[in-house]
């Protein structure tokens, strides 16, 4: 599965700790992240992550492009709801794309844990069907 990991600045420690706790669940999947988040995770784990630009410099949009092409299966985006973000339109666009494409998206650790536990159980097999029959194709 293709999994994206994004965290706002005040959520990066929380993301790193979450990934450390569930590192074995992410092993064997193709991982993507925005710049600093990806580097911090790689510095703290043995996971290999394809890093995009930082969110404000277009990383959210790069991940959004994969969502639009139905090439992303799961996103964990630990957002800071109490801090205004300079790239808020990009964030909103990414969230909207996830809704349009039916991509599971966690924006807090509680939901992320539910999704990762489902991943561990193999509950995302339905995504393989989506890859075979992309939305909008006959």
UniProtKB/TrEMBL annotation:
Substrate binds at residues 8, 12, 34-37, 54-55, 87. Residues 1-138 form the MGS-like domain. Its EC number is 4.2.3.3. One of its GO terms (biological process) is methylglyoxal biosynthetic process. Keywords: Lyase. It is an enzyme of class 4 (lyase). Belongs to the methylglyoxal synthase family. This is Methylglyoxal synthase. The gene is mgsA.
């Amino acid at each position: 599965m293709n999994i994206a990991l994004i965290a706002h600045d005040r959520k990066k420690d929380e993301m790193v700790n979450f990934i450390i706790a569930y590192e074995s669940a992410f092993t064997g999947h193709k991982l993507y992240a925005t710049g600093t988040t990806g580097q911090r995770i790689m510095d703290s784990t043995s996971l290999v992550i394809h890093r995009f630009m930082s969110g404000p410099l277009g990383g959210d949009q790069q991940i959004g492009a994969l969502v639009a092409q139905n090439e992303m299966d799961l996103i964990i985006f630990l957002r800071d709801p109490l801090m205004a973000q300079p790239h808020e339109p990009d964030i909103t666009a990414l969230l909207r794309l996830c809704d349009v494409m039916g991509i599971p998206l966690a924006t807090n650790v509680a939901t992320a844990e539910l999704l990762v536990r489902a991943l561990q159980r193999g509950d995302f097999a339905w995504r393989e069907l989506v890859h075979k029959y992309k939305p909008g194709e006959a």
